[in-house]
Amino acid sequence: MHFTSEQLLDDNVLERSFTLGEIPGILWTPASASPSAPVPLILLGHPPLGLRRMYPRLVDRARRSAADGFATATIELPGSGERPSWPAADRARADLRRVMEAGEPVGDDIVDALILPLVDRAVPEWQAALDALLALPGIGGPVGYSGGVISVGVRLAVVEPRLSAAVLFAGSFVPRAMFDEARRVTIPLHVLLQWDDEGNDRQAALDLFDAFGSAEKSLNAHMGGHTGVPQHAGDAAARFLARHLR
């Protein structure tokens, strides 16, 4: 991990950009973090739209987490942002756009081509980032995950033993294969669902929630479209993470 820039935000949160091999990322740490008092860490998931485009939303979430005493970090997903193009992913996105613009149902083949290779590539990168982040002074466990793509969060919750709790954003297509993985998830979960999400299969999101094997899981559904998540929904998610990471 190599830090490439840093700035102190106006609420005394240190923001540092980094690279991990070819993978860009951002780390935010609160003023309370120190080698003698390491803080918990939250991994901020996001859709493959590029860190530049997602930055305003990510930094808002990071600032809220810093106020609760947590460090947060995110990385650029494969094939998005400033990373090399991924022709297979580009074709899958083009197929999805074509089908949705035509008003046709999105078939399993398109969902699988869009999501499963992303999960297979992204999750090991998240784990490598976690290795590097936990080796830094001032950052310790426990570790949480917050965000989407929901299938990435599901896979991480299954394979990463350092993950203690997760907030999952239901707003992306879910391959049928992920339902079997969801049954193996046991960590506490807080799932956010926008009831009128124009690009999301609501029933699939409900079925996925039902499949989760966690003894503690909550589904928080709110009226509105994909970008209409109310402020109090974010507050509830932050309280959930605070309860499990402190």
Polypeptide structure, described:
With 246 residues, the chain is an alpha/beta fold. Helix content is 41%, strand content 25%. The protein has a single domain (2-84, 118-245), classed as Rossmann fold. It has a nine-stranded mixed beta sheet with strand order 1-2-3-5-4-6-7-8-9, sandwiched between helices. The chain is globular and about 55 Å long. The chain starts with a strand and ends with a helix. The model has no long low-confidence stretch (mean pLDDT 94).
Strand order of the largest sheet: 1-2-3-5-4-6-7-8-9
Count, helices: 7
Percent strand equals 15-25%
Q: Indicate the CATH class.
A: Alpha Beta
What is the CATH superfamily label? Alpha/Beta hydrolase fold, catalytic domain
Binned, the helix content reads 40-55%
Q: Show unreliable segments.
A: none
Architecture (CATH level 2) name = 3-Layer(aba) Sandwich
| Overall tally of domains | 1
Number of strands: 9
Q: Quote the average pLDDT.
A: 94
Structural class: alpha/beta
Spatial extent as radius of gyration: 17 Å
Largest sheet: 9 strands, mixed
Distance between the termini: 26 Å
Give me a quick take on this structure.
The chain is of the alpha/beta class and 246 residues long. It is built from 7 helices and 9 strands, in the order E-E-E-E-H-E-H-H-E-H-E-H-E-H-E-H.
